[in-house]
């Protein structure tokens, strides 16, 4: 079981490196699942949205508040992980609207670029981009 991130499938401004690493993890899990399809090994990946942990500094929390990005408690993510394992599904994304954004991004791609204007405007110089 891999723990990725919805950001690995959405491409959120300000989180390009993090999102790229999680996209790579998702691609690895997907390929591994296909390689091991004829074996008893099951490969799953969970894609939570922002999680309220000590890893988030004040800038991330301020960004999430300014953009209306929800943060889940670690216990909620753990419950989603258990539900994924029990379901035997290949993958699961946590939270709305993130689950929807993952699906829409897969279909519309660049057509969603404009929907991230609010996120882009709330970037700080620390995140490497000035609004």
What does the model show?
The protein has helices at about 5-10, 15-35, 60-65, 75-85, 100-110, 115-120, and strands at about 1-5, 45, 90-95. By secondary structure, the protein is mostly helical. It has a 3-stranded parallel β-sheet, with helices on both faces.
> Count the strands?
3
Number of helices: 6
| H and E string | EHHEHHEHH
Mean pLDDT level: 86
What fraction strand? Answer: 5-15%
Low-confidence stretches: none
In short:
Helix content is 49%, strand content 6%.
Give descriptors for this structure.
131 residues, mainly alpha, single chain, 6% strand
Chart the SSEs and their pairings.
Blueprint: E1 2-3, H1 7-10, H2 16-35, E2 45-47, H3 58-67, H4 74-87, E3 91-93, H5 98-108, H6 117-121
Parallel strand pairs: 1-2, 2-3
